[in-house]
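1st attempt posting a full record on here, be nice pls
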Amino acid sequence: KKPTSLSLTASPASGTPPFYTTLTATLTSNGTPLGYKEVEIYMRYTGIPWTKVTWGNTNASGVKSFIIHVGLTPLEFYARFAGDSEYQDCVSPTITITEEAPPLVDGRILVVYYWIEGMVSWENLEAYPIPAKVGDDIHLAVVWVNDGSSRVVGHVLAQLKSPGYIPYIPNAVEGQDHPADPGSGYTVEFAPVTLNERGSWEFFGRLTLDGTDIDSKKFTFTVEEAAVGIPTTLTIFAPDEVGPGETFNIFGQLTRDDTGVAIPAMSIIVSYNGNPLGSVLTDMQGVYTIPASIPDPGTYTLRADFARTPEYAASRSTADTIVAATPLEAALKIAGPAVTGLA
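the predicted structure (as tokens):
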């Protein structure tokens, strides 16, 4: 009789029960496919004898596939060809279907960055190279990495606790609940928190992946008392009355309170009724000038602000100006209701 050979494969060869796998038997003789021959599939589980579970004929390519339900693992299978008058019988090597290990969910908080106004770039909060001052708004950004074996969704909790043990939990503004593949990560940025107390503050961060708490970080940093700076006086002047849409100048001077000396090259922010008009630098005499135009009639409060610097304290001043309607506009406002009443 002619020799035969039988192979058996499984796809998938592992999984989490219950699941289905496809067994593929391939029957050949001297490398030539044997079509339309019956092959049998035998199975056993630990402690249970081999049992024939299914059978069927190969196709023209010598292949027969079987879909098998896997309820327990490990399961062993082999295929058998019983032979006939022309071909010898044969069996395949035994294959084992195993249980697939569940995906590894793991990760860590890599670094916590912070930024406060005046810093050139974000810095590591744990290293804390630039101390914050009372009144500073601190921005936090937490970088996490996926050390597991599957894609996960990361959620970061950030909390600051003041020296008075008051917790502050800022909202995430970017990067929260973002998926990451194994070996990658994401950055979660948070809304700023005002550091309103001097002393030791505590940072606590917790990383949750797919709803499971995975990692946390806790450390402290010191907030210093803000330097008072040299007191300053800022003045503001403008016409008492202007017309609607008329361009006029707002001007004033910034000086030191202790000596009365003008302070040059300082930024002054000017606004009216809370609407920004822009910012301008003081000149060598501490004087600033900015043009303005207000379209609608009314009484407006003009305001000039000088923000503090490491050397100088903040100051501000206000002035009122009236945008008066023209005689024609006033007449139209008076006549309008009368005309409407006649219609």
